[in-house]
Automatic annotation (TrEMBL):
It holds the Pfam family Sterile. The keyword Protein transport does not apply. Residues 383-473, 861-946 form the Fatty acyl-CoA reductase C-terminal domain. Belongs to the fatty acyl-CoA reductase family. The lineage of its organism: Eukaryota, Metazoa, Ecdysozoa, Arthropoda, Hexapoda. The chain crosses the membrane at residues 851-874. This is Fatty acyl-CoA reductase. Gene3D superfamilies: NAD(P)-binding Rossmann-like Domain. Keywords: Lipid biosynthesis, Lipid metabolism, Membrane, NADP, Oxidoreductase, Transmembrane, Transmembrane helix. One of its GO terms (cellular component) is peroxisome. It comes from the Eukaryota. Catalyzes the reduction of fatty acyl-CoA to fatty alcohols.
Length: 959
């Protein structure tokens, strides 16, 4: 057993006081868990009562809700009504503007991105770590990850804060509930060698094994939550005692006493949740000891204590600087014993707030804490029987069933906190008492937290009403969600109507995806006109490039199935552009585009991986910026789809449907300034440092374009569509159609040519891929969905309402994914020759051994060299070496993507698919999970073979 660490009261100089108001004046505060129960009250109190400079809230992305959206929802809650009632609208907006949402991911070692980290380290002075997982039934390793590791990462970040004054680590009084008497000290007695060893125990275990091991490790502790909070305290004492940090231990935190609204509560955990049956007039008996006296604290008292503790921590740390020996981490047991009430008296107290006298009298019979478990079990069985009967009756009438769910929830909560109804603790609270004595009269009026002065009968006058109000809010919220779901189901996307007589502007229409998109729009949707922005290329005019595009076999379906194909193809209008110029399109087309354009699909991009960084930024970012700056003035603009790539954030292992604004070197503008005055050689030397872990300048430029859109064009009806690897078509307009040999398609050529090539990479990596016709269909639907979302989310840009960021579609699917090796074998299995199919299993592989890849490429080059020598001898054109060099270049360029595995969220894509009408889903299918892989790869091989033959024919025609 390790020795305990004493953090008892420090010596206080006479007449020394805590100047709390001065401590927070013009201070910058960082809060985690700011959107939770305690966190909301803390933020509201700081804004309303203290002249803080700024409050940073570390907020995680939750589902599809961004941190900014979660912050906005928090401000719309009733807890901020007091501020809105005492201040004018302008003052409220100014006050709310002090709160800044910072996206955090506590699963990563760096919890915030580099730009936010620098900002926090330069500005933050006070830290409140309130965030925690309060689930009692969590597996221990998950509880440790949330309650210990996340705190560890936050305090590691705090070490770099230059002006840090104080850190308040919010723990719980019950972190040492296996002791009868709890002192204000850290008990360093975590079993099994400490938290680091416990983490090691759980690695590689199955879920069932983790559950069994959790029970063994926590021992006489009641649950993983309190055990993990104990581990967090020990971690703080061992690793961060040099920081100005203190541990604040609140007991059971219940609804507010006086601030900001008497009785306010926004959750039903712990003691508050168990009082819900009393308020609802339900019968419920809980097992426990009626004479036990729990420690309870109103949330406004708790927050006042936390605010004062931060000032006290700073004062103690300042005194330590002149003290002869360092003081250990201070601990604040926020408990008051004199005024505590027993569990047996709680029903009577809660019933004070019931308005009906009969309900007040009956509640004392219906609700009790009894020491006989058999009675509670019997009553629980009867309640569940009643709930099941009621649900069956509701189901008979087609109503929503919820009785069993509610009874189960209350029963689970009662079981989870049973331990605390059967035990009682004593405690020391010298540090809290000392804080109370040091408060000035003005601070004491502002920060009331003496629990011994609470009149519990007065407190409970508003307790029941607070629960009732929250129940009403939750019911209203559920009704609103159900209505929204019904509206969403009834308001399916009407793609055909959206595109009827629409004018569409397409860039990159002569490319691989662009051709399929244009053909699909013409053949399947009744558009009025399609403007194609086309550059002059290699002295080939815009008109000639348009003519070449229409001669492609991809348009044969239109020519063969449409009655008047000429009239349909005449809807295409080619416009010459030069995105290297500020005025990239000239009159009269400039005015025509502005007046007519309704839908924009921006596909154009330079996809060369070996292009200089400045050139690729000019093509993929500056050109995009010029297009959107121009089109934002279009009066009839409905929707813009910016086609990016899934790999725009390939330096992350997990990619969410959001824009990651973490460009290094001060952002895009600063990078352009840096590159502007450098020579080509200097730019090439600096590029790897700028792009960091990105594999090439192309994906880096696509990331920069996304961030540029977020920063400058968020007010437009714009979305970002991220396709992964795009491969030959599945069904439309021709199965297996392809017109280029880039990426995976180019690497598949040796498979068809029966060449011996082993590619270096991870055979078990699963590349996300989509057929080009599915990709085009997804873009078409995304344009309509973008318009609908923008119409629903169109708001005034103000502090009261924050405009949502552009919608992001990660166009990737996670079902039936194939590894690189399986992808290769699927292609080889569809080769026409039986011998070729068998030999391909030896000839073509993805290997982890780079030396094997080098050997096969060396043999390929040797074969190409000998082949060209023979061709030269007979006076024939030599092209084998050129093809081998191209294949080697392509293999090297795509090596990064064969070596890594990514996970992603695709909620927006799934939602979009669910909103399709059945009649339109038949011709706008884009769900890759529904593809028949055997059928697809048969088309893949046939289509690629046709493209190779077309290329050979074109070569003969040129000769």
């Amino acid at each position: 057993m390790h020795a305990t660490v004493d953090t008892g009261p420090a010596v206080v100089p006479p007449n020394d006081q805590l100047n709390v108001v001065d401590f927070y004046r013009n201070a910058t505060v960082l809060v985690t868990g700011g959107t939770g129960f305690i966190g909301k009250v803390l933020v509201e109190k700081l804004l309303r009562c203290f002249e803080v400079k700024q409050i940073f809230l570390l907020i995680r992305r939750k589902g599809s809700a961004s941190p900014a959206e979660r912050l906005q929802r928090m401000f719309e809650g009733p807890i901020f009504d007091t501020i809105r009632s005492i201040k004018c609208e302008a003052a409220v907006q100014k006050l709310f503007a002090k709160v800044v949402a910072v996206e955090a991911s506590f699963e990563a070692p760096d919890i915030v991105d580099e730009i936010d980290r620098i900002k926090l380290c330069n500005e933050v002075q006070i830290v409140f770590h309130v965030m925690a997982s309060i689930r009692f039934d969590e597996v221990l390793d998950a509880a440790i990850a949330m309650n210990v590791t996340s705190a560890q990462r936050l305090y590691a970040l705090s070490r770099a804060m230059q002006n840090l004054r104080a850190i308040v680590h919010v723990s719980t009084f019950y972190s040492n509930c296996n002791r009868e008497h709890i002192e204000e000290r850290i008990y360093d007695d975590v079993p099994f060698g400490g938290v680091d060893h416990i983490r090691d125990f759980f690695r590689g275990l199955e879920p069932s094994e983790k559950t069994r091991l959790s029970q063994l490790i926590i021992g006489d502790m009641p649950n993983s939550y309190v055990f993990s909070k104990k581990c967090a305290e020990v971690m703080v004492g061992r690793e961060f005692s040099e920081l100005p940090i203190g541990i604040f231990r609140p007991p059971i935190v219940i609804s507010g006493y006086r601030e900001p609204v008497p009785g306010w509560v926004d959750c039903f955990h712990g003691a508050t949740g168990l009082c819900v049956p009393i308020v609802l007039g339900k019968t419920w008996w809980y097992y426990g000891k009626p004479e036990m006296k729990p420690f309870m604290s109103p949330v406004d008292h708790t927050v006042a204590g936390m605010i004062t503790a931060a000032c006290d921590i700073y004062r103690r740390k300042s005194n330590i600087l002149v003290a002869p020996a360092p003081e250990p981490v201070p601990v604040y047991n926020f408990t008051f014993e004199k005024n505590a009430f027993a569990y047996g008296d709680q029903v009577e107290l809660v019933s004070i707030g019931l308005r009906n006298p009969l309900d007040r009298w009956l509640s004392r019979i219906k609700n009790r804490v009894v020491p006989w478990k058999i009675l509670t079990k019997l009553l629980m069985w009867l309640m569940m029987l009643q709930a099941r009967v009621a649900d069956e009756i509701l189901a008979w009438f087609g109503r929503r069933r919820s009785n069993v769910r509610v009874v189960s929830a209350i029963s689970n909560l009662a079981d989870a906190v049973e331990y605390f109804r059967c035990h009682m603790w004593s405690s020391d609270n010298g540090n809290v008492r000392r804080m109370l004595s040091l408060l000035s009269p003005d601070d004491a009026r502002l920060l009331e937290f003496d629990g011994d002065r609470i009149d519990w009968r007065d407190y409970h006058k508003h307790f029941a009403d607070g629960i009732t109000q929250e129940l009403m809010r939750k019911n209203a919220s559920r009704r609103q969600q159900r209505q929204m779901k019904r509206k969403a189901k009834s308001r399916l996307l009407d793609i055909s109507e959206f595109y009827r007589d629409a004018v569409v502007l397409v860039t990159g229409g002569t490319g691989f995806i662009g051709k399929v998109l244009v053909e699909k729009l013409l053949r399947s949707l009744n558009v009025k006109r399609i403007y194609l922005l086309i550059r002059e290329k290699r002295n080939v005019s815009t008109a000639d490039r348009m003519k070449e595009m229409l001669e492609d076999p991809i348009f044969d379906t239109i020519r063969g199935t449409v009655v008047n194909p000429t009239a349909l193809l005449d809807k295409l209008v080619a416009i010459e552009v030069d995105f290297t110029a500020e005025e990239f399109v000239k009159e009269p087309f400039k005015t025509v585009l502005l007046n007519e354009t309704q839908i924009v699909v921006h596909l154009m991009a330079n996809v060369r991986f070996d292009l200089g960084l400045q050139n690729v930024l000019e093509a993929n970012v500056t050109g995009t910026e010029r297009l959107y700056s121009f089109i934002r003035n279009a009066p009839h603009l409905k929707s813009i789809v910016h086609v990016s790539t899934f790999y725009s954030n390939c330096d992350r292992s997990h990619v969410d449907e959001c824009i990651y604004d973490d460009i290094s070197f001060g952002g895009l503008d600063n990078i352009k300034t840096i590159l502007k005055h450098l020579s080509g050689t200097e730019q090439d030397a600096l590029t790897p440092t700028i792009i960091g872990q990105m594999p090439n300048s192309y994906v880096f430029s696509k990331k920069c374009a996304e961030v540029m859109i977020l920063q400058r064009f968020s007010e437009l009806p714009i979305s970002i569509f991220r396709p992964p690897i795009v491969v030959p078509s599945y069904q439309e307009p021709e199965p297996g159609w392809v017109d280029g040999l880039q990426g995976v398609t180019g690497l598949s050529v040796p498979l068809l040519k029966q060449k011996l090539v082993w590619y270096y990479g991870d055979p078990d990596a699963c590349p996300p891929w989509v057929p080009v016709d599915y990709c085009a269909a997804g873009i078409i639907v995304a344009a309509c969905d973008t318009y609908e979302r923008h119409q629903r989310g169109k708001v005034m840009a103000s502090f009261d309402r924050i405009a949502p960021p552009p919608t992001v579609y990660n166009y990737c699917f996670d079902q039936h994914r194939q590894t690189w090796q399986q992808f290769t074998r699927c292609i080889c299995s569809e080769l026409p020759s039986f011998i070729g199919r068998k030999l391909s299993l030896l000839r073509n592989h993805v290997t982890r051994w780079r030396i094997i890849s080098w050997i096969t490429f060396a043999l390929l080059f040797l074969q190409a060299y000998l082949g060209d020598a023979v061709l030269k001898l007979f006076g024939k054109p030599q092209r084998n070496m050129r093809i081998a060099v191209m294949l080697q270049t392509l293999a090297d360029a795509s090596e990064f993507f064969r070596c890594y595995i990514w996970t992603m969220r695709n909620d927006n894509v799934k939602r979009m698919r669910s909103l399709l009408k059945e009649s339109e889903a038949s011709f706008l299918e884009f769900d890759v999970d529904r593809i028949d892989h055997k059928e697809y790869f048969r088309s893949y091989v046939e289509g690629l073979s046709k493209e190779l033959k077309r290329r050979e024919q074109r070569a003969r025609n040129r000769k």
